[in-house]
Amino acid sequence: MSRGAEVIVAGAGALGLNAALALADAGCSVSVWDPTDGPNASAVAAGMLAPVFEAALDAETAGDLDLLLAARNLWAGLAARAGIEVDRSGTAAVGSEAWLAEVRAGLTRLGLRGADLPRDTLEDLAPGVAPGLQAVLVREDWRLEPGPALRALRQAALAAGVVFRGEAARERGRVDWLVVATGAGQGLARAAPELARLSPIKGQILRFPDVTGGRVSLRGEGAYAVPATGGLAVGATMEPGVDDPRVDPVTLAPLVHAAGRLFPALDGATFAAAAGVRAATPDGLPMAGPSATPGVILAVGARRNGWLLAPLVAQVVTACVTGRDAGPYAVRLDPARFEERRIGEGAR
Ligand SMILES: Cc1cc2nc3c(=O)[nH]c(=O)nc-3n(C[C@H](O)[C@H](O)[C@H](O)COP(=O)(O)OP(=O)(O)OC[C@H]3O[C@@H](n4cnc5c(N)ncnc54)[C@H](O)[C@@H]3O)c2cc1C
Q1: The domain that contains 164 carries what CATH number?
Q2: Ligand 1, atom 10: nearest CA belongs to which residue?
Q3: Which residues sit with their C-beta closer than 6 Å to ligand 1?
Q4: What is the pLDDT of residues 175-206, one digit of tens each?
Q5: Distance between CA atoms of residues 169 and 339, nearest Å
Q6: Do both 68 and 8 map to the same domain?
């Protein structure tokens, strides 16, 4: 489709706003529809842009370092474009010597090495970290603040001519394209049958307003801790199959304990909890690209890496509309990868 296509983006989370901005920058006439102004998964998230530790520590994305790094690399330009502050101080894996040996082995499998931190350097970077813990620092994993980033994306989109509508999208209607970026929502399943492939994964996160946490993000055994504006954020639970955005003290308890193991001062400290629902595909990567329904494009299913992957998803979505090259990762994100192939059909 040539420049000037009319596009509805359904969903104003990280994926929808990034797609809307990229489409507007490509010359499209874009409206973003979302019925809620309340917290979605994107607002609840920790905001880590963590290609290395996600590939090293999460089996689901162990083979995707190249793709995750490519997405992370797009953040440099996007941050400048939208006025988003990205913290590049790095992330330290923190734990027992035995666990760090596993972390180092994971990094070696990826052809990478972290920097072993002397204990006094760790204490300087993360004051109050539990005694006896050791650390390996990786500079490749960055972080942003989701709240300000959402606001900055919305501002940049508005300035680029994007129109916002406070209601749910129900169909493509008369526009050229409908981009479905509805997170775990299933309201557009008739327009985009591929949404049936998504499953929910609830995530809960803690915020300790009275604790700063230091200068780098930490990945520990059973929890991560990121120094955020409103205090230290500690996350996150992974609750597959649960589609409920309410805080639950029972399933939250192990995370509270893990927080205390990282920072003893957090034991008994005041915290606020929040929950969001991630949407996941069967292989852990998003669906970005054309639906089987003509005129419909998917931008969903980024699981626990929606912030990291958002600019890459936006690039693929925009290429679908403009007809430009979608880049080398589009095939791995193609929604059609989950459909059964007919005998004799070649590789896509
Ligand atoms: C606790 C937690 C921590 C996380 N930490 C990280 C992290 O550190 N780094 C990272 O990269 N990712 C993280 N994630 C994952 C990340 O938050 C998600 O992958 C990402 O936010 C998904 O963005 P989205 O735009 O697809 O969905 P959402 O943010 O859920 O947005 C979807 C939007 O669609 C709207 N919508 C639904 N139906 C309709 C409709 N019919 N019409 C219009 N609008 C509709 C909803 O109202 C919602 O606003 C975390 C998630 C959680 C829960």
Answers
A1: 3.50.50.60
A2: 305
A3: 10-16, 33-36, 40-42, 44-48, 168-169, 181-183, 185, 187-188, 203, 205, 235-236, 276, 278, 300, 302-308
A4: 999 999 999 999 999 999 999 999 999 999 99
A5: 25
A6: yes
